[in-house]
Amino acid sequence: MVKDEGLAIVYDQDIIWSKSFGYTSLTTKTPVTSNTVFRIGSITKLFTATMLMQLRDAGLLRLDQSVDPFIPVDIDAPFTDPRPINFRQLSSHTSGFPPEGGDYWQTLKIPSIKQLYAENPIIHLEHPSFTSMSYSNFGVSVMGDVLASISNMPYEKYVTSKIFKPLKMVNSAFSPSDFENQIIAVGYTVTTGKQVPVENINLNALTPAGQSYSSVNDLSKFISLQFREGTSSDGQILSGSSLREMHHPVYLFPEISKPNSLGFAVGIGWFIRNISGYHAVGHGGGIPGYSADITLVPNFKIGVVTLTNGGISEGNDPTSLNKEILEKIVPAIATAKRNIRLKKAFYRKVWGKYLGEYDLVGVAKLYIVKQSEFMALVHPLDKPEEAGILVPKQENTFVLEGGIAHGAKVDFKVDETGKITGLTVVGIFAPKL
Predict the structure, then answer these.
(1) Is residue 342 part of a domain?
(2) Which residue positions in the chain have pLDDT lower than 70?
(3) Which of these, 144, 218, 257, 322, has the minimum number of CB atoms within 10 Å of its CB?
(4) Last residue of a domain, one of 303, 335, 367
C-alpha cells in the first residue's frame, strides 16, 4: 500500500505546517519534499474553471453563453425542454454531457481533441441541464478547448502564463519535459502485493480535465489565492468577488444531508463540502499512480493540500484525510475567533438591563439570557445550545452570530430614563415584558 505523500496546512497567505513522508521513487529512495512534483489529476479542472472566470471578467464570454457555435459537432438533447449547453453547466457538471468521449481509460490511449470530436460527431446528452450532476471529463475538456479558442492561446500556454506564473507556481506544468531540475514522484500501483511503477500517460484531449503536475508548495499558493480580496492585479489573478462566486453552489445534490465523496453541491469548478458545519470547498484528483486533494474553509481562511504517488484503489484517500484534518482544526478556530470578538465586548458590566422576555407579537416570545460568559437571544425554534450570541457593534446595537436569525441586527430601544423598553430584530419590534 503506497503511502508516500506531501501535506501542508495553509492559513490565509502562509503555510503554517508542512510534512512529507516516504520516497519519490522506490529505486532512488529520494525523500518526498514540499517541492516534489506529483500528478494532480482532476485538480486541473480548477485551473480550467479559473481560466473561465478570467475570460468572463475580461468580457470575452458570459457564463450562460451557449458553447454550440464553438464546437464542430452536434448536440443531441432529446428532451421536452432542451436548452443550449453553456459554460456554467460545463463547469459544474450539470450539462448532461456523458462522462467520457470513449473507452480510452481501458487502453490508456487518449486521442487528440480533433480525434475526440471525430469520434463523437454527435454528443448525446444524458439528462436535461441542471437536473443532475454527472461528473464529465468530456464536458470539461470540450470547455477547455473552447476557452483556448476564445483566448487565442493554447490551453497549456494560457494556464502557464495567466495562472502559474503570476502565482509563482514554479513547480507546476503539463508535461515532464516542462521541468528542468524538479524531482517528479514516480506513480505506483499495487499488483499481486507488489508496488509497481505506472505508465506516465498523456491525457491529450483531456488535458483541461486532468493533465497537470504540481507540488504541495505550489498548490498552497493556489489555496492562498482563494482567500484574497480586491480586484485583479498581477498577483491577484482573479477578483475576490469572482473567487467567492466560484465557491458557491450552482447545483445542490438531491440529498444534501447525505453528501457523497465529492460534497453536497457543486459550484464553478469547486465541489461544496461541509466541514464541522461550515461551508468548505474542495476538489480531488485521481489518475493512475497518483491521488490528490485540496480542501479549504473560506470563512476561516484555512486549507489543506495532500498529494500522493499512489492511486485511490491502493487505499490512498487524500479527500478523507483532508476532511479529518480540517474537522480537528476548524472548531478550534471558530471558538477562538468568537472568544476574541466577545472579549472586546463592553456590555458585561451592563448586560443585566438587556436580560429578560420580549414579545414578538403574533410570532413568538424571545428571551435574552446569559449563556456562559456571553449574552444570547433564544428563539423557540432554537435549541438552547444553538442560540444566537449577541455581538456588540455599538451601544444598544448587536448582531446575532448563530441561531435561526444568524446575521440579523438587534437594536434595543431605551426610554429617557435609560430603561430598555424593547428590541427590534428582522424589522419587527418586540416590547420587553
Answers:
(1) no
(2) 1-3, 234, 257-260, 312-314, 338-350, 382-385
(3) 257
(4) 335
